Amino acid sequence: MSGRGGSVEAMGEETTRIPHLDDHRRQLRQQGDGDAGPTSVLGVQQFFRERSSGRPRPSHFEVFQRTWPCLYQRARSTKRPGVAVALFDPEAGRVETAILRAQDAGDAKVPGHLVVGHHPLADLHAADTVLGLRHAVLIDVPGEPAYRLVDLASLAGTRDADGDALRAARVQGFGAFELGRSYLHAVPLEAARALPPAPEAAWARLPEPGLTMLPRTGRRDGGVEGLTVVDLLGSTGGPAHSTSCSASVRPVAELCFVRVGQPKEEGNTVPVYGGMLREGILLGRYDRCDAMLGEQSLSRMHALVLRLCGEVYLLDLASVNGCYWEVDGPGEEWDVGEVLDRRRVFRLDRPMSFLLGATSRLYWTPR
Questions:
Q1: CATH fold for the domain made of 42-213
Q2: C-alpha distances in Å from residue 268, one per residue of 182, 257, 264
Q3: Is the CATH number 2.60.200.20 carried by domain 15-31+216-366?
Q4: Would you give the DSSP letter of residue 113?
Q5: pLDDT per residue over 293-312, tens digit each?
Q6: Which residues make Cβ contacts (< 8 Å) with residue 175, sequence separation at least 6?
Q7: Which long-range contacts (CB under 8 A, 24 or more apart) does 278-281 make?
Q8: Whole-angstrom distance between the N-terminal and C-terminal Cα of the chain?
Q9: Of the four listed, 92, 127, 169, 321, which is most buried by Cβ atoms within 10 Å?
Q10: From start to end of 80-174, where are the E strands?
């Protein structure tokens, strides 16, 4: 599902079963993010200079006059539940929209999510290079009246309508955010369908926003080859392999990130504590990830592991080369005949192993 060149609706979960690893390898790009350029560091520095100088920016009401006609059209096009989302790039004057909703998975539902960024594969895409390649992710949680917004360790940051920086938040009703220079507006579909088409009238009748900042867990600004261990209270240790935790704080799982062909025992194996899963454990080859592996077939921000409503999930962050569940367990490097299952969302409810891109393997072991 690409956000390139227009609006996109997140429909049912796409699942691709690939029967052989050789077929999988042929589908992959050597470079995890293809030709997509990274966030402009100079652009981000200029953005912060503009903010500190007091240069006026459009208000959320002014932006809403641009986003609401698109959101209204989206809301009227479907009767299903969900959240209508609009991304406005003030430099280009362009609005892109999508619908966020939980996905059907057999008899149950799994979270739906939208990745926002300037990567062409992002579900909501803007050309602004101050925006991160994968700047933030919106998540619709099954059975919850609220949705989540998680910043993906972006350089330019994510802010609420009052200009306060946020890392992760639970949102009810209307949501208004700034992602670098860009603006993000979200309205639950049921509420949006009851609002008038005129932006001024709709603004006056918007559902009362409810924003709950999730507790910060002390994520590092720079990554290491391994995870930063964060305990249930949110305190930060050093690199995972050298961190000892209090015996009173027990890990909920174990995670191992390793190169394909390398024994699991030689990988970065760390205990996962509950506090780490509030904001999520960010996996990729970017040095701001929580777990970093310098493999070129990985995207910079490849996947996110986090807990939602008591369940732990692996979310693919619109990566180029995907996340694949090794249905029959891990095999040897490019083991012919191994069955792979590609999805955007996996529930981590048992010991599982995944291929991330072409050359990275993730082991998940609940405790």
A1: Tumour Suppressor Smad4 (2.60.200)
A2: 36, 5, 8
A3: yes
A4: E
A5: 888 889 999 999 999 988 99
A6: 147, 149, 184, 185, 186, 187, 209, 211
A7: 278/168, 278/214, 278/215, 278/217, 278/306, 278/307, 279/150, 279/167, 279/168, 279/214, 279/216, 279/217, 279/219, 279/306, 280/150, 280/168, 280/304, 280/305, 280/306, 280/315, 281/227, 281/255, 281/305, 281/306
A8: 34
A9: 321
A10: 83-89, 94-100, 103-105, 108-110, 112-117, 124-125, 136-140, 147-151, 158-160, 168-172
Contact 58, 183 (CB under 8 A): yes
- pTM of the predicted protein model: 0.82
Q: What is the mean pLDDT of residues 198-222?
A: 78
Identity of residue 328: D
- Quote the CA–CA distance of 31 and 28 in Å, as a whole number: 9
Distance CA 314, CA 6 (A): 27
Q: What is the tens place of the pLDDT at every residue in 105-162?
A: 766 788 999 999 999 999 999 988 899 999 999 999 888 889 999 999 999 999 999 9
- Decide: 233 and 275 in contact? Cβ < 8 Å: yes
* Residue owning tokens 């619709």: 140
More confident: 364 or 230? 364
Nearest to 151 by CA among 101, 116, 188: 116
- Same fold for the pair 15-31+216-366 and 42-213: yes
CA separation for the pair 86, 96 (Å, rounded): 6
Q: Return the closest-CA partner of residue 319 out of 344, 288, 340.
A: 344
Write down the residue that tokens 């072409």 correspond to: 358
Q: Residue 47 — left, alpha, or beta (φ > 0 → left; ψ -120 to 50 → alpha)?
A: alpha
Q: What are phi and psi of 106, to 5 degrees?
A: 70, -125
pLDDT at 338: 55
Type and span of the H or E element at 50: helix 41-52
Segment 44-63 shows an average pLDDT of: 88
Q: Which helix (H) or strand (E) holds 60?
A: helix 60-76
Q: Of 219, 214, 183, 215, which Cα lies nearest the Cα of 92?
A: 183
Q: Residues 129, 137: contact at Cβ < 8 Å? A: no
Dihedral angle, C-alpha 187, 193, 194, 198, nearest 10 °:
80
